[in-house]
Design goal:
This protein is mainly alpha-helical. The protein contains 17 helices and four strands.
Length: 443
Amino acid sequence: MFVTRKSLVAFFAVGFGCCLLFIIVVNPFDKYTSQIGTTNIFLSPSPTESSKVKTKSEDISNSDDTGNDTETVSVTETVEKETQPESPKQEETKVIDLALSSPQPSTTLYPRGKGPESANQEPKHKIPDSNLHIKDTQQVLDFVHHQCEKFNQTTALPGEAKKPRLLIVPKNWREHRILYASNPKTGSTSFKKWYCRIQGDERPYASITNVHAMGKYGKFNEVFDWVEEDLGREAQLIDAARPLYKVVAVRNPLTKLMSGFRDKILRRTKTGIKEPMLQYNPDLNINSTDAEKYAAFVEAVVNRKIVNMHFTPQWQKMKVCDFPYDMIMQTETTNQQIKEVQKKTHTEEFEFPGSRSEQGYDSVATVHLAHEFYSKVRPELMEKLYHYFRWDFILLGYTKLDNPNFPYLDFDQDIDKEFGDYVKDEVKVGEDEPASESPSANT
């Protein structure tokens, strides 16, 4: 068969065209180009692949502190990651050592939201595990009663009782006979949420709000009526309280005051400053550190320029010497002590609200914040503060900032040596207590 030159050229042209079309459509070299980490010489990546590579490339490039070009490397890493199966991720269990305080939050060193993070900072203050500071219930009661008698602070007559500032029973108090004396800034919100759960509110604790509205709970007057029917006479406070398990929570006055400041001043004002604070530090402004603001706040409190029930001594308004409590619980160890309350009141089935202190956060952070905040308080002002809260320390057994057991109770400390100078000139009960504890007074 005779073949012309033109026919041969046409044959090869058609064959070459078919091969080229096959390569374009099928792209048999794709797996090889992927393996060697180079882009396809015949086609650009599809729009989806292109955007995927670009996104990962930008992420890697942005994280490169050397300034080197990472584009080619990022494409290679992207393809390799896509070809390898990902191993299932395991959840990490965060373990917090209660014996070590966490890094100091930057908000106490700089104005809020400004300043570097203090990662890798060496902890300055070590604190004991809270489990080492749980006191036996009867031991606490005996200590308080002894101190009240020693310092002549018991004013109720034998067989009588004086009413704490707020007594609350659950609606189903006949089933769960508990009486709670609500002390501000000692975990009262958690306790009231727990009351709601006892009463039948099954919502998540985060959804239970407005807990300080007293209409949510039972009426203590109903207990009086119930007792009077049994006694056949008018019931007194001590009569109505007798069949109930009576609980109050107390707290180290230094951390209690600090908690009140952070909640009522820092979080509820735009500047973190109340006008009376400017009397003691006129240079305060929105950019002042929280610790600087706190020093002025402390001075305003001890000089009675800011008066609020959250900032006043707790011993008197909670009547620790004049009311027959069954438990004087410490905020610092609530999560351990609440188990005894649950057992006594048949409320074990109702889990107490979880708090940050369960994870060691509150105790750890509180120690750090206390040392930071009080570092700005002048020594002579600290002496005034100890005097202002003297009976909280003396009657409850709480510790000063420099005590290794701070902020817990310490019944072995020398009370007379630590606090004796603050009461040696006392002539009558509560002579230095503020005249008003109105929630809104001067705030």
